[in-house]
Amino acid sequence: MTTDNISLASILxxxxxxxxxxxxxxxxxxxxxxxxxxxxxxxxxxLFREYRSPEMDAALDSLAxxxxxxxxxxxxxxxxxxxxxxxxxxxxxAVRRQCRMLVTHxxxxxxxxxxxxxxxxxxxxxxxxxxxxxYYDVAVPIVRLxxxxxxxSAYITILKRIRPQYGDGFCETLAG
Length: 176
Fold this sequence. Notes:
It contains eight helices and no strands. It is mainly α. It has one domain. Helix 4 runs antiparallel to helix 5. The chain is rod-shaped. The mean pLDDT is 82.
């Protein structure tokens, strides 16, 4: 064999190797996307179950009513809560627990986005519920009174980039 034939065989072998490497990379990318979609689906189902639980439903209804009954008299849900807490500490404890439940749910979505465990598309589906407005307008301001973590701002920024509000804003039908 001459050196030209050896060089040609080496080039041919390198080209074939590169071709099969590209096919393997494409197959790997397709599999990675399939696994990511499966992971998104599993996370979606779990968080959707949590959001649709009887406890969350009761919390959403209660918080919507709490704010609907007080929004005319107070500039914010936090101020309404402070006044309510002075006169009804036990009732305020229940409101605070409901707020924490809702905040935990929506903050979990934000954390999953930050960690890269769910896509923005899946996150949008997970937060497109009337409870999003209650989270923004009622639960976060009340929870921040006692727990002013700086992460709240980051979580809210992330979620508002995806969905600034549900529908036209605060959902009166929840409080009806």
